[in-house]
Amino acid sequence: MNKFIGVLLILVLAASCKNETEPIVKITTEYGDIKIRLYDKTPKHRDNFLKLVEEKFYDGLLFHRVINHFMIQGGDPTSKNAGPDVLLGEGDVDYRIDAEFVPEYFHKKGVLAAAREGDDTNPERKSSGAQFYIVQGNVYSPEQLENTVKSINERRKMALYGRLKNQYKNEFARLQEANDSEALDELSEKLTRECDSLFVNEELVLTEAQKQAYTTVGGTPHLDGQYTVYGEVIEGLDVLDKIAAVKTNSFDRPVEDVVIEKVRR
């Protein structure tokens, strides 16, 4: 027993020491500071964020998209000194980052994740080179979480089926024009089998750690496995809540600008 406790203590201390070596950045706003630890297991995103911080890229940009009980988003380079009527969210650097999905990192409250274009134009789910978001989300009861996961998987499967069907659209059109109902049925069955096979990689199955987090601190489970998570808030969750609560317009842009004054290591 003592030996087991000793080994466990070593593992805990090792994990703690590892966390202490991971870089920390501080986002300064008029609402206060948010300190974020960047994960070493997502090195491409970590290094890119640090590069932009070193270049002072984020200084003066806005949290241009804010949705209470969901997330706050920033990093659009066109948001600097943007007029109040300017639509934001399309700006970026001239590169994307390969996805780095790590199962132990998920969308609990306070995580830092990369924005990206949708699956239709970005099937590899590569990340924006500059835009990021910080999750606020909601706290779920166990029953709510179970129902939410069920709905998420239904939507994911429908979306997957739609993408696959689009790949066969010419074949479907040809068979419909030929009024070949038997071949149409066979193609539909083939599509269903292919969808079922591929959905294994899309299905959201929560770990105990995810269930614990989503029923205590909260988060946004529908984003898990879809967007790269590469850091988490270690100080300033109250600042996150303050920013998330600001008044916004119909495009989710804060009515009064929320400026990222600076980001530093």
UniProtKB/TrEMBL annotation:
Pfam annotation, one family: Pro_isomerase
Ranges for domain PPIase cyclophilin-type: 29-265
Catalysed reaction, written as an equation: [protein]-peptidylproline (omega=180) = [protein]-peptidylproline (omega=0)
Keywords on record: Isomerase, Rotamase
Lineage top rank: taxon: Bacteria
Keyword Isomerase found: yes
Protein family per UniProt: Belongs to the cyclophilin-type PPIase family.
EC number: 5.2.1.8
EC class (word): isomerase
GO MF entry, a single one: peptidyl-prolyl cis-trans isomerase activity
Coiled coil start-end: none
Protein purpose: PPIases accelerate the folding of proteins. It catalyzes the cis-trans isomerization of proline imidic peptide bonds in oligopeptides.
Descriptive protein name: Peptidyl-prolyl cis-trans isomerase
Signal peptide feature range: none
Keyword Hydrolase: no
One GO BP annotation of this record: protein folding
